[in-house]
Structures are given as structure tokens and as C-alpha cells.
Amino acid sequence: xAAIEGKWKLLSSSNIAEFHDAIKTAEPFKSKVIEMKEAxxxxxxxxxxxxxxxxxxxxxxxxxxxxxxxxxxxxxxxGKENEIxxxxxxxxxxxxxxxxxxxxTFTNKVEDVEMQGQMEAKxxxxxxxxxxxxxxxxxxxxxx
Length: 144
Description:
Blueprint: E1 6-14, H1 16-22, H2 29-42, E2 47-54, E3 59-66, E4 69-77, E5 81-85, E6 91-99, E7 103-110, E8 113-122, E9 125-132, E10 135-143
Antiparallel strand pairs: 1-2, 1-10, 2-3, 3-4, 5-6, 6-7, 7-8, 8-9, 9-10
Helix pairs in contact: 1-2
């Protein structure tokens, strides 16, 4: 099992609203995302992410749970360009790569906006950073 795999509880997030402005996320989805991240500050169990890596199938899967209910699931074939529909309904093209067993790097293009980021696990902490149009957002999770 890769170190990045498992269930992760959101501890903190920064620049989420600014990042969603930078990637031109439409309402009401943008407000819902911000609300979910803010709610996690008062109730850390309200927002969980699960990461799974299947090296045999060369795939990664990310699942988002809000108050115990699965809200989103997205899979990527590692090392190749993937076309996906994001949680806001927009189609994007992106690529994910597993680096070692503790880091996933990714690029994504939605409409005319390019994004780059990574998810990196160290011990029981997962740090997610993503940048688009010069604006970066960061989320810190703890393994459960």
C-alpha cells in the first residue's frame, strides 16, 4: 500500500475562495465548496477524502465525503492524459503521476485555465497544494 493511500480528515485550508475565483468556478458550486471547507474548521469529521492507488491497474482514485456521504469520486490513469468531468460539471484534461509512494503530482486544464499541484504524505499528514493563474490554495489533512 502506498503511503499516500487511506482516509484523510481535513484540518485546515487556505485561499480556497481566491483559488476558485482564479479557475472561474461558477456559482452555486463555488459557494458550496467554500462552505464545506469552512464547516470542517468547526467539525473536522465533516469533510474526509480517501485516496487509493492501484499499481497493477496504474490508476488512482480520489473520493470526497461530506458528513459521511460520498459527494465526489474521480479516477485517473497514472502517467497519461485523462479527460474527466469535474465536480462542477466542466470537462478538463489532466495528468497524474505517482512519485515514490507518498506523492501525486498533477496538471489539469479546464477551459483556458491551467493548474498544477501535488498531494504529498509525510507520516500522518497530507498536504495538498494547487496553483492556477498565480493563485495557490493549500489544504492540510491528517490520516485516520
